[in-house]
Design a protein that fits this description.
Order of helices and strands: HHHHHH
Largest sheet: none
Distance between the termini: 65 Å
Shape: globular
Structural class: mainly alpha
Number of domains: 1
Number of strands: 0
Length: 186
C-alpha cells in the first residue's frame, strides 16, 4: 500500500476499465454473429462459438461492473447517477447513455441465460428482439466511451475504430447472407 501500487492500479483502471469493457463486448458481438453462421461453421463449431460468445459476454459484464465501481470510487460520478440514467449533475446525457447501455447489456445477458424459457415462435421472436437490442446498447456505449470522460488516448481510439470496423464488416456479411438465403440477392 505504501509503495503506491494501489494508486497505480486505480489510475490504470480509471483509464482502461471502460476500454476493456467495450473491447470485451465488441468481441462478444463478433462471436455472437459468428455463432449464427451456417455457411462456414458446422454445428459443433457454432456451439463452440456460442460458448466463446457467452464467456466474453460475462467478461464484458465483469469489466463493466469494474468500470462503474472505479468511476464511482474515484468520484467521477456518484452511485445515483450510475444507477439512474440521465441524473448526473455534470454530464447527464453522456453518463446516462452509459447507464442505459449497461441496463440493456444486463437484460440481454439475463435473457440469454434463460433462453430456454423463450420457447415457441412468438416467444422466440421476443427473445431475438431483446437479444438484438445489444446492438443499440453497444452503439450507446461507443458514444458514452468516446465523449463522457477525458479525450480518448490514441490506443483507445484505435481500439474503438477496430471494434466498429470489425462489427460493421461482420454484420454486413451476416445481412448479405440472410438476404441471399431469402432470395433477395442472386
Amino acid at each position: 500500500m505504501r509503495s503506491g501500487a494501489m494508486d497505480g492500479l486505480l489510475n490504470f483502471l480509471d483509464y482502461a476499465a471502460g476500454v476493456l469493457t467495450l473491447v470485451s463486448l465488441s468481441v462478444t458481438v463478433l462471436w455472437g454473429l459468428a455463432a449464427t453462421d451456417r455457411m462456414v461453421l458446422r454445428s459443433g463449431h457454432r456451439l463452440l462459438a456460442q460458448a466463446v460468445h457467452r464467456g466474453t459476454g460475462v467478461a464484458g459484464l465483469g469489466f463493466l461492473g469494474l468500470h462503474i465501481w472505479v468511476k464511482v470510487t474515484e468520484g467521477h460520478t456518484d452511485a445515483t447517477a450510475a444507477a439512474v440514467p440521465f441524473t448526473d449533475g455534470a454530464r447527464p446525457g453522456l453518463i446516462g447513455l452509459g447507464s442505459l447501455a449497461a441496463y440493456v447489456f444486463i437484460a440481454v445477458a439475463v435473457t440469454g441465460a434463460v433462453r430456454g424459457a423463450f420457447t415457441g415462435t412468438t416467444a422466440s421472436r421476443w427473445w431475438r428482439a431483446l437479444h438484438m437490442s445489444a446492438y443499440v446498447a453497444w452503439g450507446l456505449a461507443l458514444v458514452h466511451g468516446l465523449r463522457a470522460g477525458r479525450p480518448a488516448a490514441g490506443y483507445a481510439l484505435a481500439g474503438y475504430a477496430i471494434c466498429v470496423t470489425a462489427v460493421a464488416v461482420r454484420l454486413a456479411l451476416r445481412m448479405r447472407d440472410t438476404r441471399r438465403k431469402s432470395g433477395e440477392l442472386p
